[in-house]
Structure formats: C-alpha cells, structure tokens
C-alpha cells in the first residue's frame, strides 16, 4: 500500500474524532495495520508522533472555534478532550504563543486549508502577529524580485507560486506557466493545457484502480511527449534529463547551470509523487534545493521539508525520493508558435485513441490505459461494480477508489473547461470556423458541468472519511454513472465539431 494512502486514512480517521477519545483498536481495524505499525509509519512519513499530531489538530480546530464562534473557552477546551482549562491554555500557548483569550481578542487568522490530497481542515495561519505550525506566506517586497548568489548557492526570488488551486489543477501546466512568466513570456494556462493535450484527455488503467490515471505522462505512449509539445507550442527550446540516464551529480550540474543563468528549472518529483514542480534555487552546491511544489505542505510528504521565508520549499532529500524522475530546462530562444490546426489535430487524436500502453518505471511491467470513448465506459463500469466497493473494505482501499474518481472528474472538469476557452480563442482568430468552435466549446462546458454534478451525490468534492464511505454506497454510485455516460456523449459531440474545424482550416 502506498504510504500516502496510509497517512491519508489515519489523518482522516483522527480529524473526524477530535472531540472524542481516539479508539486505537478502531483505528487498527479501519486502516488495516497494528497500532505499533501505524504509530511508527505515521511518524516516519510525517515527522510527527500520533500523540503530537492529535494535539496539533485539536489546537487548530479549537482555534477555529475560538475565532469563528462565540463559544465559551472552557466549553471549547472540554469539547476537544482537554482535562482542564489550564491544560488547554498551556498546550494552546505552546503552539500559538498566545493564551486562548488573547488569541480571540486579536482575531488571529484561522481558516481551512488543504492538509492532504482532498482533505481540507482548520489551520492557524502565520502573519505578523500570529505564530503557527502551518504558515501562509505572502509576497514581501524585500524578498521578491531578487537573486541571492554566492559561491555555494543561488536563489531566484519572485517566481510565481505553483500550487493546486480551483483554477489550476495540472501541475506541469501551472509550473511551465510560472517559469515562462518569470522569464518574461506571457502565456495563458488554457493554451498550455491544450498544447500538452491535458485539456482533452481521459485515461483509465485497464488492470487496477490507479492513482496515476491523471498523470500527464499517460496522455501519449512516449511519456515525455506532453512536455515536448508544450515547449514547442510555447516556441521554446528545451532539454530533459531523466533519472534512468543520470546520476545525482548529473542532476545537480544540470540544475546549477540553469539557475546560475537566471532560469528556473522544471522537475518531476523532488517532493511527493512524480508531478511537475519548479526549482527556483539551490544551496550547498546543489545538495539542497528550493522551489514550488504542489505537495510541499502536504503532511504525508513534508517530513523533511522546511519553508523558506519566501514560501519556497527547502529540501535536501530530493534525490532519495523515488518520484524524482527528471529535470527540464527552458531555453531563452523563442521560435514560431504551433498552428491552431496542429493543436486541434492532436486534440482529436487524443480523444479518439482508445488504448495506449507503455513500460512502467521498473522497465518490465507494461501498463495499458483506456482512452477516448472507451475510457468513459471503463470508468462507469468500475464505479458501478458493487464488488469493487465492499462495505467491509479497509479505508485506504476506499480512499484509492475515491481518489481515482476525483482524478477522472478533474480530467474532464478542469480539462474540458480549458478546452472550451481554447476553442473560443480559435474562433476569434479564425472566423471561418467560428460557429463550429462555439458549438464545440458549448459541449465541452456541458461535459465539465457533468464532472461538477458528480460531487452532489457523494456530498461534495472533499475526499475525507465521510465522503469516501458515502461514495462506496451503491445508491450514490448509481447516480454518478449516468453523469459519466452523459459526459461521454458531450465529448463525442465536441470531437465531431473539432474534426469539421480541422477540415476547414
């Protein structure tokens, strides 16, 4: 079992039981491991013991109620299982530097923030008056827009932040946009989404529930093709250095040579899974790296990660992460952009190719994914199969199911929304295909709406314990399957219009 699913399950179990004594026998049954294994693995992955973590979460949740409700402070302390108000006050002060009454008077900042993939929960934010264990950094003019360089380090400050947001859910596209913007090229996220093919893909592993379905490297049989197409569409030269062909020293030299020239580096991995991130600097001659990564504050990946005053991650265990698979440079030279017709043809190819296969990272296993219309059918079939959702299944297994569901929703929800934006751009540039482009965009928006409507039966977009167990219920999944098939129908209609556009361009 992947460690992040284990941490996800354990943290979600704890989060819903902060107002009661944690029953460790129930935790064992839910997660499927002994308490000793849970305790040791959780600390190994997060850097926190279970008792430390439970206390931190009780403090964060009680802080939320202190700021956002008028509840009596003594009552809040009792609700979150503190033996006495004095015990609560001492613990609260250790974590925030304030006693609860001062915390309320100062209106310190507490909100909800993503702690794990799909899990949002109360968090104490850091500002000029508040201390916290989960900081929220803002741009400081003294920090941003400068380069700090000496004999052993070089840091490029001012690279736009890369993170999962409601508007941008595909790390590579967000990371490339940030790098190009920093380098002075204004480029639209929708254009990069279309150029990579991410706006038009849906992939589903034919053999098992695969948390990597959404990986941008699964669009083409050449796993680097999405990256190459993006660089070409942006009119940039590029280099890709892969781990399988390199050493740590090769990576360090590659990174240092680019950063020293004032160019941020794209990478896969560094922190967490092999999703794209941005390297913005190095220290200790490259042994320590800084940058932006969508997983830098996720508890399941942040054990060896600290945060620079700018908000950049700081890590010296990046090579030990098996997800660190490649680094990519962006050349200074700008060339002619790819034509709209070529981008449309690639989009149609993605939407009509029913199967792709390639070797896994181990170099031995062949992975096969459904694509095009078949991917919708496989997705619907898996969600409809009650045998895949045994009500006695361990929570990590059910988490894996809802994660795949959520990723598929992202592929068509975010993807087709930006596909519509891209097509609307084409209609402005090419009047001869204006009506067809508008129709295709309309169908893509309707398809994206199907993805958002899928959240309703399962109780929202969150992927916590409650939503996960609800998604496992047969009557809930029966409401989702027709939406999957409706999305398939809209995708085919949009694809038909795009074929006509290609013929006319």
Structure, briefly:
The chain has 505 residues and is of the alpha+beta class. Helix content is 48%, strand content 14%.
Blueprint (SSEs and pairs):
Layout: H1 3-15, H2 24-31, H3 35-46, H4 50-68, H5 73-79, H6 85-96, H7 100-105, E1 110-116, E2 119-124, E3 147-149, E4 154-156, H8 171-182, H9 189-196, E5 204-205, H10 225-233, E6 236-242, H11 248-260, E7 265-268, E8 276-283, E9 288-292, E10 306-307, E11 313-315, E12 326-334, H12 340-352, E13 355-359, E14 366-370, H13 372-384, H14 395-429, H15 434-453, H16 455-458, H17 465-471, H18 474-504
Antiparallel strand pairs: 1-2, 3-4, 4-8, 5-14, 6-12, 7-8, 7-12, 8-9, 9-11, 10-11, 13-14
Helix pairs in contact: 1-3, 1-14, 8-9, 9-10, 9-14, 12-18, 13-18, 14-15, 14-17, 15-18
Protein traits:
505 residues, alpha+beta, Arc Repressor Mutant, subunit A, Cathepsin B, Chain A, 3 domains, three-stranded antiparallel beta sheet, 14 strands, globular
């Amino acid at each position: 079992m992947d460690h992040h699913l284990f941490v996800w399950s354990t943290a979600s179990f704890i989060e819903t039981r902060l107002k009661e004594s944690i029953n460790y026998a129930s935790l064992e049954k839910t997660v499927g491991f002994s308490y000793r294994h849970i305790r040791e693995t959780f600390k190994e992955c997060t850097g926190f013991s279970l008792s430390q973590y439970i206390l931190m979460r009780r403090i964060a949740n009680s802080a939320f109620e202190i700021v956002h409700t008028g509840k009596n402070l003594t009552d809040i302390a009792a609700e979150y299982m503190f033996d006495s108000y004095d015990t609560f006050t001492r613990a609260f002060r250790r974590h925030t530097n304030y006693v609860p009454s001062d915390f309320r008077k100062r209106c310190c900042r507490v909100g909800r923030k993503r702690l794990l993939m799909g899990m949002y929960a109360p968090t104490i934010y850091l500002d000029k008056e508040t201390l916290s264990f989960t900081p929220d950094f803002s741009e400081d003019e003294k920090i941003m827009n400068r380069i700090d360089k000496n004999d052993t380090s070089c840091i490029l400050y001012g690279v736009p932040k890369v993170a999962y947001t409601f508007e941008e859910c595909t790390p590579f596209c967000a990371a490339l946009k940030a790098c190009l913007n920093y380098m002075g090229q204004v480029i639209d996220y929708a254009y990069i989404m279309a150029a990579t093919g991410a706006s038009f893909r849906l992939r589903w592993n034919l053999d098992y529930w695969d948390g990597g379905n959404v990986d941008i490297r699964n669009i083409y049989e050449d796993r680097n093709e999405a990256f190459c197409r993006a660089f070409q569409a942006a009119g940039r030269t590029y280099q890709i250095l892969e781990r399988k062909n390199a050493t740590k020293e090769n990576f360090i030299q590659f990174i240092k040579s680019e950063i020293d020239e004032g160019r941020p580096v794209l990478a896969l991995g560094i922190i967490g899974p092999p999703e794209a991130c941005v390297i913005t600097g190095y220290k200790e001659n490259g042994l320590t790296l800084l940058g932006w990564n969508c997983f830098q504050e996720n508890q399941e990946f942040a054990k060896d990660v600290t945060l620079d005053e700018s908000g950049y991650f700081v890590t010296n265990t990046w090579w030990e992460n098996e997800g660190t698979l490649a680094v990519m440079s962006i050349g200074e030279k700008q060339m002619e952009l790819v034509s709209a017709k070529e981008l449309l043809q690639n989009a149609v190819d993605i939407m009509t190719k029913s199967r792709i296969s390639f070797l896994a990272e181990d170099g031995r296993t062949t992975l096969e994914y459904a694509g095009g219309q078949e991917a919708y059918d496989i997705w619907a079939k898996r969600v409809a199969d009650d045998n895949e959702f045994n009500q006695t299944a361990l929570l990590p297994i059910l988490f894996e199911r809802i994660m795949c569901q959520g990723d598929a929703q992202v592929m068509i929800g975010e993807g087709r929304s930006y596909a519509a934006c891209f097509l609307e751009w084409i209609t402005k540039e090419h009047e001869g295909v204006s009506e067809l482009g508008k129709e295709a965009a309309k169908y893509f928006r309707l398809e994206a709406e199907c993805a958002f409507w899928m959240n309703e039966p399962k109780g929202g977009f969150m992927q916590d314990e409650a939503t996960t167990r609800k998604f496992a219920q047969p009557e809930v999944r029966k409401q989702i399957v027709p939406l999957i098939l409706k999305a398939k129908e809209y995708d085919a209609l949009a694809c038909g219009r795009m074929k006509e556009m290609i013929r006319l361009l």
